[in-house]
């Protein structure tokens, strides 16, 4: 951009330089003196004032320009909008401001045929990605174009945002996209090797975290690209041995996010986080056995750091009365029975579809056999008795009462589910749980 500015007249150079460096007073003075300057662009790339402000995160100047009724979807030479540049640079406040001003998330550039969602996913700005998805869900895009279609929008080479995030080693973006309905087994057209799935691209990039996320959401280890390669072959070709060990078809199948959980009407977000963490933890235990068997060591990933920071200390008051190993972290809202995340996953993964209707029935509480309509995070240390004294020595009696209540209600269910939990670490997968639902990027090589 500096070379462009050097080609401008002194007056224009001062204006664009002031926008780039956030000199709000200079910009305001110059614009008030000559309103035509609002529509000035750089000579070669045709960057407008909005483009420069958005790319450099100058939220004050951006707000001032938008207040002057400037069109938020101005296009530069590559048909990039200010929103695309803000998403590419990770300028979250500018992204939110442009979205609030009505910026169109369905604009495609002429460089690679990508939207702002592609830019955010490719460059790994999870906060920008989430903001764009939230805006699309509440805007006309969801009603006219379709939210699921937007999440899986393809660029000019057939790559979805999930493909780009997996290839560029962006596990946080991969998780957000999968949670928003991205198709885990979608194939590319020309991006990478034709026919590549996100798992192929994660294997090529060697991102263990991306591979973990994709496998947990049901990515197929045996799906082949147009060259006939499975992800395991791609990982071996690029010497990513740890990823290859997990992608080896002969290795133990990973556990998959069970689809019955998607049919619970109100799955509390905090409860979902606990269930996902339990799923990833169970898979990591399998990984350790796989890697030990293949004599491969792996250093802890950044996502594992501090994952036990909020784990509650197990004691008689909060120990799960199904497995007697994990802490109760999940509560069935309508009956208030509590169980651990691992047992909740086991409960849902063993709930098979009706063979006649091919539809899933909602899971039921193992204690009272009531339908589970809502799961929330278990609450600890609270009493329904207003006269309860927290210092009362009868707290041990309260613990025994809660445990006996869970054990006494639905003992047959307890015994049946207890055995299924024991087999959770032995099964190859969750059965029916699979889900089917830039400038530095000018020359992407396959």
Q: Helices, strands, pairings?
A:
Layout: H1 2-6, H2 10-21, H3 24-33, H4 49-55, H5 59-67, H6 82-89, H7 92-100, H8 116-123, H9 126-138, H10 140-151, H11 161-167, H12 171-179, H13 198-205, H14 208-216, H15 231-237, H16 241-247, E1 266-267, H17 269-293, E2 330-332, E3 338-339, H18 341-349, E4 374-377, H19 395-408, H20 411-422
Parallel strand pairs: 1-4
Antiparallel strand pairs: 2-3, 2-4
Helix pairs in contact: 4-5, 4-6, 5-7, 6-7, 6-8, 7-9, 8-9, 8-11, 9-10, 11-12, 11-13, 12-14, 13-14, 13-15, 15-16, 17-18, 18-20
Shape: globular
Based on CA atoms alone, the radius of gyration comes out at: 26 Å
Sheet with the most strands, sense and barrel status:
4 strands, mixed
Summing up helix and strand content along with how strands pair, one would put the structural category as mainly alpha
Q: What integer is the average pLDDT?
A: 79
| Unreliable sequence segments | 1-8, 302-314, 381-446
ANK repeats: 45-77, 78-110, 112-144, 157-189, 194-226
Domain RING-type: 320-369
Pfam families: Ank, Ank_2, RING_XB3-XBAT31
Biased composition (Basic and acidic residues): 382-391
């Amino acid at each position: 951009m500096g070379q462009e500015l050097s080609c401008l007249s002194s007056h224009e150079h001062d204006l664009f330089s002031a926008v780039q460096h956030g000199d709000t007073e200079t910009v305001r003075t110059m614009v008030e003196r000559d309103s035509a300057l609002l529509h000035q662009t750089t000579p070669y790339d045709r960057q407008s004032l909005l483009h420069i402000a958005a790319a450099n995160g100058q939220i004050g100047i951006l707000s001032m320009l938008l207040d002057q009724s400037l069109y938020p979807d101005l296009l530069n030479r590559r048909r990039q909008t200010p929103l695309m540049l803000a998403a590419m640079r990770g300028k979250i406040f500018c992204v939110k401001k442009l979205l609030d001003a009505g910026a169109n998330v369905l604009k495609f550039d002429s460089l690679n045929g990508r939207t702002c969602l592609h830019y955010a996913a490719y460059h790994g700005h999870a906060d920008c990605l989430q903001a764009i998805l939230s805006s699309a869900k509440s805007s006309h895009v969801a009603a006219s174009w379709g939210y699921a279609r937007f999440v899986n929008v393809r660029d000019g080479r057939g790559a979805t945002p999930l493909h780009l995030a997996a290839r560029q080693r962006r596990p946080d973006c991969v998780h957000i996209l999968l949670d928003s309905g991205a198709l885990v087994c979608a194939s590319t057209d020309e991006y990478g090797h034709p026919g590549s799935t996100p798992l192929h691209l994660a294997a090529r990039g060697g991102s263990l975290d991306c591979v973990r996320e994709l496998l947990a959401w049901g990515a197929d280890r045996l799906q082949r690209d147009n060259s006939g390669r499975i992800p395991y072959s791609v990982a071996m070709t690029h010497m990513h041995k740890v990823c290859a060990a997990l992608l080896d078809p002969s290795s133990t199948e990973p556990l998959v996010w069970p689809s019955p959980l998607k049919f619970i009407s109100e799955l509390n977000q905090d409860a979902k986080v606990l269930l996902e963490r339990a799923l990833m933890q169970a898979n990591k235990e399998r990984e350790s056995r796989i890697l030990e068997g293949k004599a491969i060591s792996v250093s802890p990933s950044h996502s594992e750091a501090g994952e036990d920071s909020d784990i509650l200390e197990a004691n008689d008051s909060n120990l799960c009365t199904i497995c007697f190993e994990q802490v109760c972290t999940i509560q069935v809202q309508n009956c208030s029975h509590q169980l651990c995340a691992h047992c909740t996953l086991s409960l849902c993964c063993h709930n098979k579809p009706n063979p006649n209707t091919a539809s899933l029935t909602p899971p039921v509480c193992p204690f009272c056999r009531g339908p589970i309509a809502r799961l929330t995070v278990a609450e600890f240390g609270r009493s329904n008795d207003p006269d309860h004294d927290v210092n009362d020595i009868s707290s041990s009696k309260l613990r025994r009462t809660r445990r006996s209540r869970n054990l006494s209600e639905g003992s047959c269910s307890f015994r049946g589910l207890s055995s299924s939990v024991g087999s959770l670490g032995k099964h190859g997968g969750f059965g029916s749980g699979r889900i089917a639902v830039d400038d530095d990027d000018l020359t992407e090589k396959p």
